[in-house]
Amino acid sequence: MKITILISILIFVLLTSCVSQKKYTDLHNRAELCEGELRNASNKLLMLENNLANEKNKSKALEKQGDYFKSTNTNLLDRLSDLSIVSKFGAESIKKSLEALNEQNTYIKDLTGSMQRKDSLNLALVMNLKRSLDDFDDEDISIEVKKGVVYVSISDRMLFKSGSYSINESAQAVIGKIAKIVNDHKELDILVEGHTDKVPIHTDCIEDNWDLSTKRATSIVRLMQTKFNVQPERMTAGGRSEFVPKATNETSNGRASNRRTEIIILPKLDQFFNLLTPPEVVSAD
Questions:
Q1: Burial class (CB in 10 A: 0-12, 13-18, 19+), 238
Q2: Which of 50, 61, 192, 212 is the most buried (most CB within 10 A)?
Q3: CA-based angle 280:109:191, to the nearest 5?
Q4: Residue 127, exposed/middle/buried by CB under 10 A (0-12, 13-18, 19+)?
Q5: Are 248 and 201 in contact (CB under 8 A)?
Q6: Structure letter (DSSP) for residue 171
Q7: Strand partners, 236
């Protein structure tokens, strides 16, 4: 309002006074500058009013939410009190459920720890076996971990003559080195499996491939017991015949790969099954 009056006075003075063109121009520019500042001030005031209105709306919304939460909490407390949700029986049931969950959690931790120890033992076994059998051809011996246990696979051309289950004299050194390592781990059992190709066999001493694979596995077990002092109660001999091939039986190389004996080093079965048995869960009913 003051600025408007000032502008009016300036115009009046200009009209009634004799001023130079330069002074007139300066006064005119100052008047326009004042009008611009007035407009800016008016716009800022309008923005402040709008912001204040928004803040008031937000404050009202927060107040409504607070009232709602208070009402909800009050209703929940009333329901808990009226319906007696946390009764003595309910508390005992919850306690039993928590105890059962703690037992399950302990079992899972124990199982995980046992599996980690087993994996570490398998790694140590593989390293010891590879170091001990380093002098032999890798094509005739392979060592790997499958299904959580250690497999030592030996080709039959190293162990036996064709169609025979008598162990070659030169192959006994291999069995002896393996026996020495398994004797250092009394907590482990040994499963020996014989495998053949699918070429049929029948002689006076051998009925078929089932018979040949079983007799070859038995020969290995017997040698480990009698010459290398592996406890017989730790060992199992089994024949798989032609039914678990590693390669195709349609080629000579494939059939050679399938004719093998596998020495499997694994945990004692009773300990293994005990490990897999979870604790009995107490019902919370």
A1: middle
A2: 212
A3: 85
A4: exposed
A5: no
A6: G
A7: 191
State the Cα angle at 221 between 216 and 224, rounded to 5°: 125
Distance between CA atoms of residues 85 and 271, nearest Å: 45
* Helices (H), ranges, the chain: 2-16, 21-83, 88-132, 156-159, 172-183, 209-226, 252-258, 269-276
User: Strands of 141-146's sheet, edge to edge?
Assistant: 141-146, 149-155, 260-267, 188-195, 235-239
- The strand pair at 188-195 and 149-155 is best described as unpaired
CA distances from 191 to 76, 186, 205, 215 (A): 64, 14, 24, 14
Q: Tokens for 209?
A: 């491939």
List, for residues 199-246, the tens digit of each pLDDT value.
999 999 999 999 999 999 999 999 999 999 999 999 999 999 999 999
SS3 192: strand
> Do the beta carbons of residue 122 and residue 145 sit within 8 Å?
yes
CB atoms within 10 A of CB 147: 7
pLDDT tens-digit series, residues 109-142: 655 655 566 677 788 889 999 999 988 877 899 9
Neighbours of 284 (CB within 10 A): 14
DSSP 85: -
In the block, which residue shows the tokens 């499958």? 146
